[in-house]
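DM between two lab members

TW: hey, do you still have the DUF2779 domain-containing protein entry open?
JB: yeah, one sec
JB: this one, 615 aa:
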Amino acid sequence: MPRHTLSKSDFKTARGCGTKLYYRELKYPDTMQQNEYLQLLAEGGYMVELLAKQMFPTGLTLEYGKKPLEAAAQETAAQLERGAREEVVLFEATLFDGVRQARVDILKRTPRGFDLYEVKSSSIDFEKQAKALEKTGSLFKSQRTPFGIHSDWREYLEDVTYQVALLRDLYPDVPIRAHLMLMDKRAPVPHDGMPQWFRIVKADDGRLATAEFIGDAALARESRLVIAVDCTSEVEELEPGVREAAQDLAASLAPELTRIEPVLTRACRNCEFRTDPAEGPSGFHECWGERGTAHPHVLQLFRGGDLIDEMIAQGIDRVTDIPDAHVAALKGVYGERQRVQIEQTRLGKEWFDPALGHEIAQARYPLHFIDFEAARIAIPHHKGMTPYGLLAFQWSCHTQRAPGAELEHRHFLNTDPIWPNELFARELRDAVGHDGTLLVWSAFEKSILSAVAEEMSSLGSGDAELANWLREAALPLGDGVGRQLDMLKLCRKRYYHPGMQGSNSIKYVLDALWKHSSEARSRFAALAGREGDPELGPYATLPPEIIDGSEAEVKEGTGAVRAYFRMAYGLEREDPTIKSQWSNLLLEYCKLDTLAMVLIWEHWQRITGSAATGR
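TW: and the structure you got?
JB:
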């Protein structure tokens, strides 16, 4: 039998649910392996970690993962022994006590003691956190009594604390200072193309393995983008609780692996071990048993919160079985939406508020259905931007100039390593002009327009006319000059279909009406030039590309961001064929998002008998 150990990533996973440690140790299938968002964060995290390491020019990188755990720990111990006499800085130091293990990003030892640095790709706004520091004596505490560690920082600080506790047990008489290394949110990037200072190295199976720094180390040290923040006092506050939790988890690993009894809650909805049991063992279904097969599941209740936990505790697993007394007690905007979901799911019928027709009629032709793709990366590509600065790189627009008129499609996609935002805005203005309603799905487009307008003076040409146009385009319909109508808000307030499963995502809404509306499917076939499976939905029709021998596709927003970075900044930017393939995937995906809005809008027109006024 293999020996099981508790790594810091194990601790992080199991901190919220101890049962996950069992599934993780037995390598159950999990959605984290395929999660595009987490992969994107991982790639950005490598860049920040490597940038942080340049702050320590004498640092020695140890070969973590290339030798047995015990050997790696022994190598670390030998290097740290030198640190009792002279300064030693280690990257990827391995700490191990027989059960607990940790890989430390940066560990410095001098005759005075240890400095442990945990690198995070998150940013900190020191001006914003100044009030917390003044009121609580800490950058990381809540300003509300009893001034505990703020929830935004707790996970990061517990990660540091886990490492400090292990290090303290291995070296009980040596003082330890703890640090978080974070991106300074207000520090301007001093050079163009800094992400090209890093090379992502893939394993043979194509998954992320490691990364290399290939830039100018001296310039990296001068950048001041990454800053170390002392968190020793916060770690001391958290250490007793972290030690107790680590001890309980370690006890489930040795002398033999045991499964911690699950506690079923609303958090199970997003469990990474909620996989298809037909494709292998599913941790979610092992926890829930037959209760996990309930349909429609109570976990799908919109913003269910405490009500979901209450129902689970009472053994109620279906949305349709929530007692009438609880349904009648639902209050507020969320409560009203929950009531609609429960009642219409029981009936198995589509619902719309009569006011939906009135709100549709407020739209003015031409109708412009728009969707944006944008990214925020820890280390921006362009001089003058700050960490997590905005890159608005793509939009799609379907325009209908009059009732029944043919749809016109225009698009924009930046394919070069330049600051794209001003060109993005100019092309959009050329496409939608000053007339008609801008239909969007969520407040995302509004935020992008406003952000680009604010950047015009600092990063762009300072074109005041264009900036004013962007601000006006961001205003909601009904504010005099306002043009923007958020279809997501309409959906939340005025429309529901049981097939949406409690979600208001455009993909869920379209899939729901797609499965029961032959008109929507026929319209899609006519506009897209391809038919889709009635059971799978239109997003399943997006054609993949074979890129560098592997099938690639873009079917959601984070995948679009990763595709953009590979095309514009990655190694593939020099290959015109591959660049063209990524472009095709991005264009088809974004085009389908605006086409989805058209199909939903036309469906709402059919069921309400309403149309935009054209005024």
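TW: got it. The two ends are 74 Å apart (CA to CA). The chain has a mean pLDDT of 91.
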